[in-house]
Amino acid sequence: MPADVILGAQWGDEGKGKIVDVLAEKYDVIIRYQGGSNAGHTVIDGDKKYILHLLPSGIINSGKMNIISHGVVIDLNALAAEIKELKSKGVKVTPQNLMISSNAAVVLPYHKAIDAARESGNAPNKIGTTGRGIGPAYMDKYSRGGVRIRDLFNAEVLRKKITDNLAEKNFLLEKFYGKEKLRRGAILKELQKHARFIKPFVKDTVDEINKYVKNGKKILFEGAQGALLDIDFGTFPFVTSSNPTIGGVMTGSGISHSRIKGVWGITKAYQTRVGNGPMPTEMKEPEHSRTREAGGEYGATTGRPRRCGWLDLVALKYVCELNGITNIILTKIDVLSIFGRIKAATHYIYKGKKISTFVADGNELLKCRPVYKVLKGWGSDVSSARTYTALPKEARDYIRFIEKYTGVKVSVVSVGPDREQILKKP
Ligand code: GDP
Ligand code: IMO
Ligand code: MG
Fold first, then answer.
1. CATH number of 267-424
2. Residue 118 Cα, ligand 2 centroid: separation in angstroms?
3. How far apart are CA 354 and CA 314, in angstroms?
4. For the chain, does the N or the C end have fewer beta carbons within 10 angstroms?
């Protein structure tokens, strides 16, 4: 059974990019299966830093095939810019190491304009999106009128879809949101340019992925966002518009569940969130600012400061059970070295009762107050540790506490952003 999954177990930014970059050499193919350029996956390689939005993180170092499958929504401007930037840094991006699904949905300028309009001014229910047009693009996919990559190669179909869609979107933009109309000619011209550029990469990736499966090749799925941002299982409405949870792997790539072996849940040793919505364990000052600075907690896509909190074990256990997480990858434990005491939420107080089950609704979770277990910190730098036993006892106690609470083994611990700052736990 050849496939493993790296799945964000929090609200995104758990360190997926770093881990996929390190693991990718052990696999034959790395696949992004949901989300879009709302993702920002950081890979640090020596003095070089890369931030990937659409391309799988295997593209940097592995020399293996990378696939953007049909579950991803693709902004062709963002993709072209990302490829250009990587090439300028000496990274090879060719049809020998990248495939793009012909059935992926395309993010268009009107999706971004609507995303921005819905989030601007006094608009109600603002999510704090990344502004990358993700929600409106998935809406068009599910309403069945959206443009797919394959449409770029059929001028008649493309013209008709853009014409029909734009009539509706311009009505909305102009009459409802009071914004500028977009011009069809400019959109079509840009799409034609992108069509020429991406054509060599475009494949039936369901077929290609299943060929890898049949040939016994090893597949690594790179999740984007995190389980708590899942449209169905997250803190709705403060979520993204895709399924970062395990089902998204199957629907977004075309692999069977029976091929999946490892489901690696990746979590920070604390918690962050960008954008709006509840986070029961959000820290107070001065812990909050100290964590943000020690962890460099600023969004990789938007540069927004991330909200920081203590580890929420109630949420983590929910994510582990929901996704059948087989192993935990724990990142950024080095950041907690600044604290003499470490807290982790084991329960919530909700409607006057002490509960240990997650509340998967944004507005209800807002009402939950955390109950903490306080553990002794280690107070010393762990970023140079390369073996598990080199970690201070208090750090190992904290990890054991996480394992005991979730019932899932922590198998990998990351102690810094660099490739070599990683250790296997026996
Ligand atoms: P992703 O979206 O899950 O790929 O995560 P991001 O790249 O958005 O955010 C993770 C940030 O933490 C990046 O700046 C990484 O370079 C950094 N990082 C990853 N692992 C570690 C770690 O173990 N320790 C520290 N201090 N930083 C890390
Ligand atoms: P990676 O893959 C963290 C958040 C946004 C917002 C909500 C909806 O780097 O972990 P969207 O633009 O998707 O409509 O925004 O989801 N969000 C992320 N937060 N990491 C991400 O991706 C995110 N992608 C979206 O901040 O709260
Ligand atoms: Mg990120």
1. 3.90.170.10
2. 16
3. 12
4. C
pLDDT < 70 regions, the chain: 1
Asked if 417 contacts 18 with a C-beta cutoff of 8 angstroms, the reply is: yes
Hey, where are the domains in the chain? Answer: 3-100+202-263, 105-197, 267-424
What pTM does this model have?
A: 0.98
- What pLDDT, in 10s, does the model give residues 228-246? 999 999 999 999 999 999 9
Give the pLDDT confidence score for residue 54 in this predicted structure: 98
Mutate to test the pocket of ligand 1, among 50, 306, 331 (most ligand atoms within 8 A of CB): 331
* Alpha carbons 38 and 74: distance in angstroms, whole number: 10
Inter-residue contact 309 to 347 (CB < 8 Å): no
Contacts of 323 by beta carbon, 8 Å cutoff, 6+ apart: 7, 9, 227, 245, 246, 263, 265
Among 57, 15, 28, 24, residue whose Cα is nearest residue 333: 15
State the ligand closest to the CA atom of 12.
2
Query: What residues flank ligand 1, with Cβ below 6 Å?
Result: 8, 12-18, 40-42, 44, 295-296, 300, 331-332, 334-335, 414-417
Q: Residue 220 has what pLDDT?
A: 98
The closest residue, in CA terms, to atom 16 on ligand 1 is 417
Pairwise CA distance, residues 368 & 122, whole Å: 27
Write down the pLDDT at residue 407: 98
Give the whole-angstrom CA distance, residue 109 versus residue 160. 16
Q: Return the closest-CA partner of residue 223 out of 141, 135, 323.
A: 323
The CATH number, out of the four listed (1.10.300.10, 1.25.40.80, 3.60.21.10, 1.10.10.410), of the domain defined by the range 105-197: 1.10.300.10
Specify whether the CB–CB gap between 244 and 24 falls below 8 A.
Answer: no
Query: What pLDDT is recorded for position 62?
Result: 82
Q: Is the CB of 130 under 6 A from ligand 2?
A: yes
Q: Which residue has tokens 């009762």?
A: 353
**Phi-psi group of 333: left, alpha or beta (phi > 0 → left; psi -120 to 50 → alpha; rest → beta):** alpha
**What's the half-sphere exposure (Cβ side, CA atoms, 13 Å) at 300?**
25
| Per-residue model confidence (pLDDT) at position 1 | 57
* Residue 309 CA to its chain's centroid (Å): 19
State the DSSP string of 191-222. HHHHHHHHGGGEE-HHHHHHHHHHTT--EEEE
| SS3 state of residue 303 | coil
53 carries an active-site annotation? no
List 4, 21, 41, 230, catalytic entry: 41
